[in-house]
């Protein structure tokens, strides 16, 4: 556990993060150039990533940071987490992804299936401690229409958001929009911390190749439904 929480452990590169990419490094410099302190740098990076429209492309694997920067559209939970984490590391902040098990309540309205899925949230080391956020995930138009749909349905959570979630991150405290505080704190929902979202899939495949490939196939098939519902929800709100 001590090694896992050592900030120096979470600064390295991976193929998915691609920290040496010139475009990524230039983007981080541009995004943070007017920030006066670490808190403002963190918020600026989160705001940049959240501004990329949220979607779940059908059959698409998690994208590398260079692809996300080039397209700036049609990226989901995994790809956005990787970009946010990569930008944090380039800016000098230790960052890791914690994989969280989420039940159907979180994504109902987007997909009719029941069952548990595993999604990333990002933890960043700042001010001498680890803090967690997922406020980089949703762009403001999607967040507004998703929250309205949840309230209209009379749910506590759905469409990827929780009514008790916090969509505004101050760069100092924990802030999660997908989950309620009790869900995020429950160790039973934690599936480990990794260098990037692909790390979880690789670990799953190494433990059980059949289970790993089954989970990947299941996620690919579900992406069709998620993509269709995200587009429908945006269309209902006028784009």
Automatic annotation (TrEMBL):
Entry-linked Pfam families: Transglut_core
Domain Transglutaminase-like: 29-134
SUPFAM superfamilies in alphabetical order: Cysteine proteinases
Domain of life from the UniProt record: Bacteria
Record's protein name: Transglutaminase domain-containing protein
């Amino acid at each position: 556990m001590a090694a896992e929480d050592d900030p120096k452990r979470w600064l390295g590169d991976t193929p998915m993060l691609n920290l040496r990419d010139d475009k990524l490094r230039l983007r981080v410099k541009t995004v943070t150039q007017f920030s006066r302190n670490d808190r403002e740098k963190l918020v600026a990076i989160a705001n940049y990533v959240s501004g990329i429209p949220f979607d779940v492309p059908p059959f698409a694997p998690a994208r590398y940071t260079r692809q996300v920067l080039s397209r700036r559209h049609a990226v989901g939970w995994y790809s956005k987490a990787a970009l946010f984490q990569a930008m944090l590391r380039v800016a000098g902040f230790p960052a890791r992804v914690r994989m969280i098990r989420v039940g159907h309540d979180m994504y109902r309205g987007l997909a009719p299936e029941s069952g548990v899925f595993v999604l990333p949230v990002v933890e960043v080391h700042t001010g001498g401690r680890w803090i967690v956020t997922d406020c980089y995930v949703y762009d403001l138009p999607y967040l507004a229409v998703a929250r309205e749909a949840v309230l209209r349905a009379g749910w506590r959570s759905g469409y990827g958001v929780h009514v008790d979630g916090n969509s505004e991150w101050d760069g100092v405290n924990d802030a999660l929009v997908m989950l309620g505080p009790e869900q995020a704190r429950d160790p039973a929902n934690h599936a480990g911390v990794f260098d990037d979202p692909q790390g979880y899939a690789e670990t799953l495949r190494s433990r059980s190749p059949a289970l790993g490939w089954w989970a990947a196939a299941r996620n690919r098939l579900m992406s069709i439904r998620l993509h269709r519902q995200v587009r429908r929800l945006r269309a209902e709100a006028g784009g």
